[in-house]
Amino acid sequence: MDKQAKATDNRRSTPDTAIYSQPTPLTGAETVWATLVGEGVRDVFGYPGGAILPVYDALRKFPIRHILVRHEQGAAHMADGYARASGRVGVAMATSGPGATNLVTGIATAMLDSIPMVCITGQVSSKVLGTDAFQEVDITGITLPITKHNFLVRRTEDIAPALREAFRIAQSGRPGPVLVDITKDAQQNSAIFDFAAAAPQPYRPHPMLSADSTSIRETLELLRTAKRPVILAGQGILHSGAMEQVRALAERTQIPVACTLLGLTAFPASHPLNLGMMGMHGESWVNHAIQQADLLIACGMRFDDRVTGSLSTYAPNAKKIHIEIDPAEINKNVRVDVGLIGDLKEILETLLPRLPGRDGAAWLHAISAMKGDAAVHDIQQLPDNGHLYAAHVINDIWRETKGDAIVVTDVGQHQMWEAQYYKHDSPRSLITSGGLGTMGFALPAAIGAKVACPEKEVWVIAGDGGFQMTCPELATIVQEQLKINIAIVNNGYLGMVRQWQEKFYDKNYEGTPLLSPDFVKLADAHGIQGAHVRRRAEVVSAVETARRHPGTFLIDFHVEQEDSVYPMIAPGAALHEMIRRPKHNPLVETATEE
Amino acid sequence: MLHTFVALVEDKTGLLARVTSLFRRLNVNIISLTVGGTETAGVSRTTIVAEAAEDRAPRIMASLYKLEGVLDVDDVGRHSAVIRELAMLKIAADQSTRSDLFQLAEVFRARIVDLAPESLMMEITGSASKIEGLVQILLQGNYRILEMARTGRMAMRRGHHASQVLEALGDTTPRIDPKTLSGALKLEDENHA
Ligand SMILES: Cc1ncc(C[n+]2csc(CCOP(=O)(O)OP(=O)(O)O)c2C)c(N)n1
Ligand SMILES: [Mg+2]
Description:
The structure holds two protein chains of two kinds. Chain A is an alpha/beta fold. Chain A is about 35% helix and about 15% strand.
């Protein structure tokens, strides 16, 4: 069978439902797949090797699509992108030793962004465990601080309970990655498979959850008396599925909303109450509004240093209400006045019927005044000065896709420009590594997103640096016959680092100028079509070509090399002390220094 | 300041590593850590003394609770509690110094548990300050402490207080086999300052 046929013929058999209705003897390897099927899994991203081979051997009996990756880091990012796009648990699989260690960056990425994911690794046989056997590595030890939990399974009968528990843990409370390491002999031996009996312990809510009537009353009172309130919208809104509730809160109280990077799609960009992104590269009026606020209502966000700037000067006059599922986040970075600890949706449902009426006009008016000339005018109106700016590229992709695509970004300047110039109106339509800031994330995560949501248009927006970290996954795209549009924002530099060198290291561009292959030829070598774009006039037609093309299409956008992301908060500076766009900047009409 | 936490955890391999790894990750130094059995089979009790700013206790507790297998956490340092530590000291001693050491042991309610021609071993149970008091007196008296082993603190709240979590789990009946109790009971009424 040729490879492509093999790849597409992956969802082979129909499920054998008998094994779920009565206890049946299965090998450990079969148990792995049977449990995954029972948990509703349809797709697994993985890479085989000796210690996981029994599991691969049993795959043909189960209705699961296996996507062969080119590096296990890719498998983890794919499972992660799959989860971010769909809300379902992503599954990655690898062999022991180097296969397992290659997952590590992807697991940490999911951990820092609270993404539900289950990683399954093969392990050497229990008889040689602890002897430094060939390809033995203590992966449960290595991943201990970067997983929500992990398991080392040595016995066949423990496989199903551990896996089911892993799915429960990955999704409950604050989600996160779970790793299940299974010895080879546990895969090979047989045991009675009893799916129902392997059901996990019921979810035990964290004992420190609290949203008692006193805190609710205090919250309502703060909402009633606040003159300058701002809602801070984080990714927890997506996890909790509280988009409607947050919207109702904002609309009924006329309180404006500022979003974190990961919360950008939790509240529609086009909503009149949406101020935009806060933090290090947030627009000036957003950060000013936060600094001047007398009340912050933080919803499912964790006051990361990238959104607070210096803590001692953060929102000094604001009372703070923190609605959050993880008690360990309360008072971690920012002291709050009221902590409502629990599921955001439930807490907002309690608050909504009792919300006080407010007149928010004066504060909203004050914020629009702050925008003043800083408001992002339509950058489309700018005359073509012969240069190609990343902002234009991204803004054009937004206009052409009507804001309807899932955009998966890498990490760097292009990531921030995407956040500024692609206006997201639907939940989960931006997938990006926020907490760990993992370069190389975009391409594999986009594959995961496309597998999860085949009906959606998926765009990769990556830098020339990060793209080269995981570009072998182009072959995965071809083998799996996926249609993804890839935009490389090629500035010849590790741009975000170069920007820091420009601002804080006397333009000493050490280690940041970057040579790249001809990305279009690279795509061609994979049988993927592509185009170079060097002028602004060519952007729209290239984007159109990519979208029309039935297969994956790559566009290499050769943009201005020494462009910088503005506004910017220097490390250690206060949130309102932004470096604004310099006057001579060609994008001068967007928020300039007075 | 020093915090004293008591955590009840499932008696499973690797759980202790999770607990200590957590403290390392939170950048909190562990001063002492004890682990042992409890009234419930399959549940271990750890007492963790850690150095951290006063306001960090809630986050440490919340993070401990996030670990799978941690059943209950108590910040006993905030409550009226009995806190004890056991130390064993091997002290250089010959015929001429032995009797003085016996007297010292008497005063501190320590016990001599081993006697050799050139040394003796003392066992002392009590608060950390009592143990440190004994050590100080020994050093001032120019005794040579050849070896010292301290268990670190164990703590239990005074009065009728039981783990709310275990109660909620419907699991309060002591499952200790009365036969194993005999040795432990002796310590009960020791009244240390
Ligand atoms: C794996 C990894 N290594 C290093 C970094 C540090 N880093 C952050 S942004 C950046 C530059 C990214 O360059 P490029 O991919 O070309 O994107 P650009 O900033 O130019 O848009 C680097 C090196 C990182 N985030 N991740
Ligand atoms: Mg670059």
